[in-house]
Amino acid sequence: MDAASTPLSKPPLQILLCAPRGFCAGVVRAIEAVEEALRRHGAPVYVRHEIVHNKYVVEALRRKGAVFVEELSDVPDTTAPVIFSAHGVPKSVPVEAAGRKLFAIDATCPLVTKVHREAEVHHRKGRHILLIGHRGHPEVVGTMGQLPEGAITLVETPDDARTVAPPVGATLAYVTQTTLSVDDTAGMVKILRSRFPDLVEPHKEDICYATTNRQEAVKQVAPKVDALIVVGAPNSSNSQRLREAAERAGCPRALLVQRAGDIDWASLGPISRLGLTAGASAPEVLVEEIIDAFSERFSVTVDTVTATEEDVFFPLPRALRPDAAE
């Protein structure tokens, strides 16, 4: 073989794989709820909003017979199951479903439901609630929709925390969206406490274990790599927060991609060490797809960096459990 036909050797690349990453217990529960409803009742099964924020997952369920709608008004009169997504819904949604006698199944993550219950308790005790979260996110819409209009004030940014003007003389409490940046939220809480010393806090941190653990793993890996990829959807709050956490922890380039085909190879530049993680609604098959894509271009070794172990499990909604009537 002459020199011109000798294959070029691939440059070495070490991939530091963050753990934990990918699916959390709430996402697993929500996806399994749709699959179990399809198994028990057949297609179609209607799902209000994306069951989780991941196009790959949604398309896979759609192929099995799930029909995704944005509002219940898009669901015909039917005896088929109608599933509420993991993000939670305003109270008006199950009321509307009951009024139409729809077979509604609530796949809201139990940790989101916890925030709903906290807000209700604060309201019953006469407290005005400050909700730290992102306007328009389905989880925030659902939490604000648990209580009458005006009972909750949304705080999105540190500037909001500095300027928010709750009702004069009100006792205040705060709750948070479950998928926020741990560091950003701590900063906003610090500002709010400095202004409102008697602010009532959650009994237990509202930011969920999965969000916290995935951010911690990214913080450990980010300073050690030339670039870091987060597998996740652009409308996934926890995935966006992972990208931000990587940048803040010192990673020169942090990219959010949905699939290997979305990688902008030119923007990566020369790299010898890559961080890789996945948001809580991104399946592991997409992580493997990205590792395969890098293996085509590099001589890859993969090492896992583990921040903590997870063993959280949530049972299916009651209507779908094995002891429920078929």
Please describe what this structure looks like:
Strand 2, helix 2 and strand 3 form a beta-alpha-beta unit. The radius of gyration is 22 Å and the shape is flat. It has 326 residues and is α/β, with parallel strands linked by helices. The N and C termini lie far apart (67 Å). The protein has a five-stranded parallel beta sheet with strand order 10-9-11-1-12, with helices on both faces. The protein has a four-stranded parallel beta sheet with strand order 3-2-4-5, sandwiched between helices. A three-stranded parallel beta sheet has the order 7-6-8. It is 36% helix and 19% strand. The chain has three domains: 11-23 and 209-306, 4-hydroxy-3-methylbut-2-enyl diphosphate reductase, catalytic domain (Cobalt-precorrin-4 Transmethylase, domain 1, 3-Layer(aba) Sandwich); 25-109, Rossmann fold, CATH 3.40.50.11270; 111-195, Cobalt-precorrin-4 Transmethylase, domain 1 (3-Layer(aba) Sandwich). Residues 1-6 have low confidence and may be disordered.
